[in-house]
């Protein structure tokens, strides 16, 4: 190129121009070409250490040596900017028979809120979302859209993929949050003297189910709604178990505040079965009860292993992490882990444990699960960041037993568990007999939790009783006459 410029400028001179302002050949020859290599002799050598110095993500082995994810509880993905949100909303086709809406578990009118974002009507967009889902902000951050709305999106196969419905939802509701608009009882509702609105209603557990139920009751006009919670805070799992890097605490606090604005009362530190019973609530005058207490009972038979301090389960580890990071806002107070941490399980909770383990000081984190990738419970929204963080995934391994070393469980024996048939929809696994032993410094189990047994077997609530109970739509809690079914 340089030689081409030189020849051009020389050609200009030969046409007799007296002064050619492009002629910098002398400068080039003196300052640039003189220092250029005359011939290629050696390949450039740059060793791995030098390269890593320039590479931000050198941590590909799963070893974390003081890299940036240590104690980094910053949100994984920041909120869309106004420009990004509008551009994303413009990509949406506003399909007539919007299949995304059929995949939404809270039936939000998705194309309508996206249309409002496109027209810069943030209030209108948030109104559409919050009408159907009072926890629209948390859901925007946590919803597994790859399995719900976005899975059905008509532009999923386009170059930019499915519409980022969750990010648009988060954007719209957080813009609404910044407006500071309060939630009020609908002024068009009948006045206070309407006797139905005086019914006392108890909601057990202050998690997402009860917060949502309470909001709809408040919006319908019910004034005597009380939520009983065994912890000292509302928000349920979102506050106590889902880490800060997935759901910032300020956002769920705002959602709880919105519920309180409807006049819903909260009673903290009261546990069903310990401090009160359904019967005692009935005697106190509650006419309806909504049981939204979730799944808290660990699997049976593992109690003895948790007596050792380096063996934890998700229900003991994540609440401690979140108490420090989310509630007390003190990242130094998280549980201190080190060395190799093994997490058993491959659900969202297991991956929350694994990612939190890194942030609590682990140098290597291995997630062991007994099935293949096609069978895992975790969704892409958490799986992809987990892979990027260098977590060591070990599929097809069934944990058999823990092995004691010097009086402490320090090793785990695993047996290979492979699929034995070709039916993609009904894979059957079989242990092959190949066993390995793996050492660990900390072990965290993240198995399925279940409903308290005495609640599952509850046959006391027979038809005809005044207090009515029914299963909620997720079939993990009961509700009174406002639930999916009633007696
Ligand atoms: S399916 Fe996709 S493109 Fe169609 S309305 Fe829903 S989000 Fe928009």
UniProtKB/TrEMBL annotation:
<dbReference type="InterPro" id="IPR028261">
    <property type="entry name" value="DPD_II"/>
</dbReference>
<dbReference type="GO" id="GO:0050661">
    <property type="term" value="F:NADP binding"/>
</dbReference>
<dbReference type="GO" id="GO:0017113">
    <property type="term" value="F:dihydropyrimidine dehydrogenase (NADP+) activity"/>
</dbReference>
<dbReference type="GO" id="GO:0006210">
    <property type="term" value="P:thymine catabolic process"/>
</dbReference>
<dbReference type="GO" id="GO:0002058">
    <property type="term" value="F:uracil binding"/>
</dbReference>
<dbReference type="InterPro" id="IPR023753">
    <property type="entry name" value="FAD/NAD-binding_dom"/>
</dbReference>
<protein>
    <submittedName>
        <fullName>Uncharacterized protein</fullName>
    </submittedName>
</protein>
<dbReference type="Pfam" id="PF07992">
    <property type="entry name" value="Pyr_redox_2"/>
</dbReference>
<dbReference type="GO" id="GO:0006212">
    <property type="term" value="P:uracil catabolic process"/>
</dbReference>
<feature type="domain" description="Dihydroprymidine dehydrogenase">
    <location>
        <begin position="70"/>
        <end position="180"/>
    </location>
</feature>
<keyword id="KW-0560">Oxidoreductase</keyword>
<feature type="domain" description="FAD/NAD(P)-binding">
    <location>
        <begin position="200"/>
        <end position="407"/>
    </location>
</feature>
<dbReference type="Pfam" id="PF14691">
    <property type="entry name" value="Fer4_20"/>
</dbReference>
């Amino acid at each position: 190129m340089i030689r081409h410029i030189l020849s051009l400028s020389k050609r200009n001179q030969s046409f007799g121009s007296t002064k050619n302002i492009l002629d910098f050949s002398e400068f080039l020859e003196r300052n640039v070409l003189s220092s250029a290599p005359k011939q290629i002799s050696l390949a450039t050598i740059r060793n791995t250490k030098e390269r890593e110095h320039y590479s931000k993500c050198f941590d590909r082995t799963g070893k974390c040596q003081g890299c940036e994810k240590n104690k980094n509880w910053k949100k994984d993905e920041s909120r869309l900017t106004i420009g990004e949100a509008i551009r994303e909303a413009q990509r949406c086709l506003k399909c007539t028979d919007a299949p995304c809406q059929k995949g939404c578990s809270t039936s939000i009118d998705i194309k309508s809120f996206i249309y409002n974002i496109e027209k810069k009507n943030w209030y209108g967009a948030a109104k559409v979302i919050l009408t159907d889902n009072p926890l629209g902000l948390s859901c925007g951050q946590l919803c597994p859209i790859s399995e719900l709305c976005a899975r059905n999106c008509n532009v999923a196969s386009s170059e930019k993929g499915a519409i980022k419905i969750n990010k648009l939802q988060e954007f719209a509701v957080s813009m609404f949050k910044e407006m500071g608009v309060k939630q009020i009882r609908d002024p068009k509702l009948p006045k206070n003297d309407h006797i139905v609105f005086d019914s006392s209603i108890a909601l057990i557990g202050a998690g997402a189910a009860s917060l949502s139920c309470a909001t709809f009751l408040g919006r319908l006009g019910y004034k005597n709604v009380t939520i009983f919670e065994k912890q000292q805070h509302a928000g349920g799992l979102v506050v106590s178990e889902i880490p800060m890097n997935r759901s910032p605490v300020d956002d769920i606090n705002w959602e709880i505040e919105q519920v309180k604005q409807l006049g819903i009362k909260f009673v903290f530190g009261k546990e069903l079965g310990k401090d009160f019973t359904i019967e005692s609530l009935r005697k106190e005058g509650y006419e309806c009860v909504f049981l939204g207490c979730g799944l808290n009972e660990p699997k049976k038979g593992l109690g003895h292993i948790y007596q050792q301090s380096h063996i934890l389960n998700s229900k003991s580890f994540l609440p401690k992490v979140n108490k420090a990071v989310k509630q007390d806002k003190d990242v130094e107070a998280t549980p201190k882990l080190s060395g190799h941490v093994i997490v058993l399980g491959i659900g969202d909770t297991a991956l929350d444990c694994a990612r939190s383990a890194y942030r609590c000081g682990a140098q290597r984190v291995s997630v062991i699960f007994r099935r293949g990738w096609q069978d895992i419970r975790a969704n892409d929204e958490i799986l992809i960041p987990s892979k990027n963080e260098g977590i060591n995934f070990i599929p097809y391994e069934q944990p058999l037993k823990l092995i004691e070393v010097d009086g402490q469980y320090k090793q785990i024996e695993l047996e290979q568990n492979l699929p034995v048939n070709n039916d993609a929809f009904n894979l059957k696994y079989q242990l092959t007999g190949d066993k390995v032993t793996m050492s660990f410094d900390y072990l965290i189990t993240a198995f399925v939790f279940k409903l308290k047994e005495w609640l599952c077997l509850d046959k006391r609530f027979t038809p005809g009783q005044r207090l009515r109970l029914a299963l909620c739509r997720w079939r993990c809690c009961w509700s009174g006459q406002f639930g999916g079914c009633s007696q």
